[in-house]
Amino acid sequence: MAHPPFDPRHAAHPTGSRPAPILTLKIDGQDVGARSGDTILTVARENDIHIPTLCHLEGLSTLGACRLCLVEVAGANRLLPACVTAVREGMAVTTRSERLQTYRRKLLELFFSERNHVCAVCVSNGHCELQDLADTLGMTHVRYDYLYPPAAIDASHPRFSVDHNRCILCLRCLRACEEIEGAHTWDVMGRGIDCRVITDLNQPWGESESCTGCGKCVQVCPTGALTEKGRAVAEMVKNKEFLPYLRIMRRRTF
Amino acid sequence: MMLDEINEIAQRQREKETGFRHRINVCIAAGCLSSRSDDIVAAFEEEIARRGLEKSCRVKGVGCLGLCAGGPLVAVEPAGILYRGVAADDVGEIVDALPGSPLARLHCPRETPFFQRQQKIVLENCGWIDPTAIEDYIAADGYQAMHTALTRMTPEEVTREVSRSGLRGRGGAGYPTGLKWSTVAKAESATKFVVCNADEGDPGAFMDRSVLESDPHRVIEGMVIAGWAVGASRGFIYLRAEYPLAVKRVKAAIAAAERSGLLGGSLFHTPFGFDIKVRLGAGAFVCGEETALIASIEGRLGRPRPRPPYPAEHGLWGAPTLINNVETFANIPPILRNGSGWFAGIGTEKSKGTKVFALAGRVRNTGLIEVPMGTTLRDIVYAIGGGIREDRTFKAAQTGGPSGGCIPEEHLDLPIDYDSLVEVGSIMGSGGMIIMDETACMVDVAKFFMGFCCAESCGACVPCRVGTTQLHRLLERITAGHGTAGDLARIEDLCDLVQNTSLCGLGQTAPNPVVSTLRYFRDEYEAHIQEGRCPAGACKLGQ
Ligand SMILES: Cc1cc2nc3c(=O)[nH]c(=O)nc-3n(C[C@H](O)[C@H](O)[C@H](O)COP(=O)(O)O)c2cc1C
Ligand code: SF4
Ligand code: SF4
Ligand code: SF4
Ligand code: SF4
Ligand code: FES
Ligand code: FES
Predict the structure, then answer these.
(1) Which of A80, B256, B266, B322 could form a disulfide with B184 if both were Cys (CB 3.0 to 4.6 A apart)?
(2) Sign of torsion, CA A29 A34 A39 A44?
(3) Residue B152: helix, strand or coil by DSSP?
(4) Is the pLDDT of residue A21 over 90?
């Protein structure tokens, strides 16, 4: 992806200088104020309303792909992803109806059924956003077939490794590498269930000429897919400080 | 180019045509071309030269004549005689028969309902004009509507005319075309684009391909008029590379229009200019989805993004972009030529005009047909389609491709339009129509379309990527005789999840064939699961 996907924040502030008008809306019955161009997710977070997310990461372009942040908006006939939907004056948003929570649990089940997530042997056990969400949303078992497609581990990089069995295709690695580091090492190939993240033109990561070895992708990866080498089970803790840092760097570039 | 120049070309071309006593029109669209109709053209030319008939007899390649299954087709005018299944060896006999009665062996009477019950607007020139000759299109009143729009109408007037016609998008969803045009027209931007969606990825569909192969100038004319109406001066035709003949004809037509001054700067000496470029797609179904299509034209990965914002507001390179389907654009010139009132007089209350269908499956006459909206399914199957092959009974019609559903026998008298199809659980889609008889297993049909969707899913979002795969597995299990009691509930639950949480139209509609077959043919699913048999005797369990 040479260009980041559409980001409503940027569209709403083409010059970035005009003061944005203030809007009011309701989230879960609570009156909240927002700047025109803000997304539902931003406004919700400012007001301590928690909406689950996986593909979204403050500081990166938005994707709207994991569907966990879907919310109900009065008058809209579809559920809308809070991370990319811009607020409108008078909007009424529901973020945690029974229907939404059920859908979110089922989406998580689909994630777990897709590849191999045996947490007990995973280096990210205990420090994984996917696992955390399953926990907080009360997803206790998977009612779908486990697909377990054959997926490789690429440990050719001197410091990092990628285990495709744990990848959920959130593309945070891709966006961090392209938009923050500017290396564009990551890409995706394949359709549907055969979709994979790849480095360069599907070459081993260790042979990548574009990778600077900065480790940004590893830190933003929500799961145990991207890890530092030399970590044993449950030892891979991602550096959460890294995220605010990304945000600051992102602000500076725009 | 000025109007009198166009009229002069038209006049000259018409005189040339009527100067011949016999005109032999050979279909050179993809269907017939694949059975070497180009050799037939050559054989006719040779035969005519050999007999010294060049002055009284003319051979011409033309677009699709409609009855593709009977191809190669040859029409002899002005006698109005049609021949089917012609081979190069037959040419001598056909020429022998020119002055007298038609050659009985190959004759395909035109007085049959297949030809009589159709009404051709989009396909009006198909089978009449040579798609490689711009003069032929001009002689068929081509570029007249564009002249009227550019020199005598304001953009608002053009948009109003399109709105009044009641035309709805032919690419699937049936969004009102005039409303879309006025939204793009109202968007404030110095740069705007017009995009023709010619991706046509539905399995079995070939309506758009046929129009582009048979009458490409009509689409170009429609796009220029759209450009004038919305304030865009550049257009793209997004065409799949698997349609090499359409690509060739469209490119040649663009070049011919440019040479004639019908594309490019200051058209008809007005300040308005418009140019069109062709962009080839690699043939991914999802690239027909408008935001994926935009990404693909921009040179990015062809993956959808959430809407809103819609392309009308934020399209190609962020500029307001009008995206319409091939058939939608093809309807524009006749609407402006004959008036919105004329168009609005055809069809049903909320679906105006005609619809082109690729009629396939178990009917006798498969091929490309165009009927007024509101034609009943029974008319299509029994009158136009000639009934079910081998005198079997009708079981269901699948419309709308992977986003559509099956219509059972009890709805045979349904007048087909956008809304009636939705009411019975299917959709118009782009116009694929597959007719099935009692030998079709509906679980198998659902499995086929689900298999298509999971193979074509772009992989961006989990409900579509994993959900369709899970659904496909469940259906596969049922047709293999391994279905269990809870499977139908599991399937229904997954369908609901995939429909409601997927990012783009592909996932949102992928469960439709399953939902509609469950609605009408639940007993078949149950027979597979509970009794371990396939009532139709079609899938693995039937044998
Ligand atoms: C998965 C998917 C595939 C699509 N494929 C096509 C296509 O091949 N051709 C087309 O015209 N529209 C296709 N569409 C619909 C387009 O996105 C769009 O609605 C249409 O081109 C608009 O034109 P219209 O208003 O003239 O129908 C597709 C939509 C989806 C979700
Ligand atoms: S990535 Fe997360 S969910 Fe997957 S196995 Fe590791 S800890 Fe468990
Ligand atoms: S380590 Fe840095 S440069 Fe290398 S792939 Fe990760 S983000 Fe890109
Ligand atoms: S490797 Fe990690 S960050 Fe990259 S797509 Fe997979 S899960 Fe997301
Ligand atoms: S619904 Fe399917 S095709 Fe559409 S974005 Fe999601 S994965 Fe891709
Ligand atoms: S966080 Fe909004 S879709 Fe992933
Ligand atoms: S392709 Fe020749 S009749 Fe359709």
Answers:
(1) B322
(2) negative
(3) helix
(4) no
- Contact across the interface for A107 and B314, Cβ inside 8 Å: no
Contact criterion met (CB < 8 Å) for B309 and A6: yes
d(CA A52, CA A83): 10
Instruction: With beta carbons less than 8 A apart as the criterion, state whether A55 and A111 touch.
Output: no
Q: Evaluate if residue A4 carries a pLDDT over 70.
A: no
Beta pairing class for A70-73 and A160-163: unpaired
Beta bridge partners of A228: A160
Nearest protein CA to atom 5 of ligand 1, as residue: B288
A186-189 and A80-81 beta bridge pairing: unpaired
B468: chain A residues, CB-CB within 8 Å? 192
* Number of CB atoms found within 10 A of residue A77's CB: 5
Return the ligand number nearest the Cα of B504: 5
Classify strands B234-240 and B275-281 as parallel, antiparallel or unpaired: parallel
Q: Which residues of A225-239 are buried (b: 16+ CB within 10 A; e: fewer)?
A: bbbbeeeeebebebe
The CA distance from B196 to B212, in Å, is 11
Task: Name the strands in the sheet holding A153-154, side by side, starting at the edge strand that comes first in the sequence.
Answer: A153-154, A160-163, A226-228
The pLDDT tens digits for A221-252 are 999 999 999 888 878 888 877 766 766 666 66
Is B503 in Cβ contact with A67 (below 8 Å)?
yes
Q: Residues in chain B with pLDDT < 50?
A: none
pLDDT surpasses 80 at A138: yes
Report chain B's mean pLDDT, rounded to a whole number.
95
Rounded CA-CA distance B57/B99 in Å is 11
Phi then psi for residue B263, to 5 deg, are: -135, 150
What pLDDT, on the 0 to 100 scale, is given for residue B173? 85
Using pLDDT thresholds of 50, 70 and 90, give the confidence band for residue A12: very low
Nearest to A110 among B299, B308, B462 (CB): B462
Chain A window 71-130: which residues touch B at a Cβ cutoff of 8 Å? 78-81, 84-86, 103, 106-107, 110-111, 113-114
ipTM of the complex: 0.90
CA dist., res. A248 & res. A246, Å (int)? 5
Cis peptide upstream of residue A5 (ω within 30 degrees of 0): no
Single-letter amino acid code for the residue at A174? L
In this complex, do A191 and B284 lie within 8 Å of one another by their Cβ atoms?
A: yes
Flag whether pLDDT at A6 surpasses 70.
no
How many CB pairs below 8 Å do chains A and B form together? 109
Gap between the Cα atoms of B237 and B149, Å rounded? 21
| Any A CB within 8 A of B462 CB | yes
Ligand 2, atom 8: nearest CA belongs to which residue?
A119
Q: Name the residue among B272, B268, B264, B297 with its Cα closest to residue B282.
A: B297
Q: How far is the CA of B326 from the centre of ligand 1 (A)?
A: 10
Distance from first CA to last CA of chain B, Å, rounded? 66
Partner B contacted by A215 (CB < 8 A): no
DSSP A92-147: EEES--HHHHHHHHHHHHHHHHHS---GGG-TTTTS-HHHHHHHHTT-----SPP-
